[in-house]
Each structure stands twice: as C-alpha cells, then as structure tokens.
Amino acid sequence: MYCEWTQIWYGFCYYYKVTTQDITTLRLLSQNIAGSHKLNPGEIVGYMGAMQAQDYNGTLWALGLRTGKTQKEIIREIETGAIIRTWPQRGTLHMVPARDAKWLVGLSALRLLKGAKRRREQLGIDDNTLQISRKIFNEALLYEPWTGNSPRFYVVEWINFGRCKSWFRG
Length: 170
Hints:
- By secondary structure, the chain is α+β, with helices and mostly antiparallel strands.
- It has seven helices and five strands, in the order ββααβααββααα.
- The strands form two sheets. It has a three-stranded antiparallel sheet with strand order 3-5-4.
- Helix 6 packs antiparallel against helix 7 (151-161).
- The chain is elongated and about 65 Å long.
C-alpha cells in the first residue's frame, strides 16, 4: 500500500510515493518514540502540546519511552512543576507544560463549568456545600500533606465519614 501526492515548488512538480513503512517511520519519529531521545520530559510534553494522562503510570511509561529517562527521573520532573496534570480539554486528564496550563484550560473552561454545574445538580450538591468544600480544600493546600493536624487530614475524614459520601455515585 502506498499514497501519492504532488508538491509544486518553484513551478516544478514533484511526485512522492509513500509506503506504509514510510508512514510508520514518520509517525514514530514525529512522536519522538524513535530517534535520539535528547529531550527531557518537560520538553516532550511541550513538543506534543499535551499528553493524555488518565492513567498516571501509563503516562510515566509514555514519557520514559520518549525520553529514555527512568520513572524516578520523570517523577522528579513532575515534582519540580515543569509539567502538570490537569483537565485542559474534554474533561480528560492531560500532562501539559506548566507555562501553558492556564491558557489551555481556558480554552474549554466555560463548557466544562457548565457541565460541572449540571453534574452537581444530578448529585444534589447545593451551592452552600460547594462553598464549604471549596474553603476546606483551599485551606488544605496551605499545609503540609496528610498530618493529623492539617486540613488535608480533615478533608479525608470528611469525605470518608462525613456528609459527602453520596458524592461518589457513578
């Protein structure tokens, strides 16, 4: 199987025959799966624009495949904040360069917020409960994680034993 296309350049007509093997090779090279692996994880994510990241371990593997880095090296890059995991489109988790996260999320934020409002209504989460949980989570981000005295600890307790157990339906 092959494809043909024509390119006109300076009045000359060039014909290319591209085989399935050519297409496969070009795809592997363009996605940095084949090649020299000279880019670090942050550069790969920037080059790709965004990488699906619903499966965190799968994302680590995909970054390792493209960079030749170990899992620890990739996690270190994530922990530095060069790349972050967020919802820039379709409500699907992606790894994106931190520098691009704001504008990428902004592209679909309005649509996602409308969908979230409908979902909260389906789950029976009123504005008061949303405000309380927003306050707790915002305060939780200011403290060290998972100590017995931090708000993060109480958030987990509230979720596990408190009034929001019903939130986790479907």
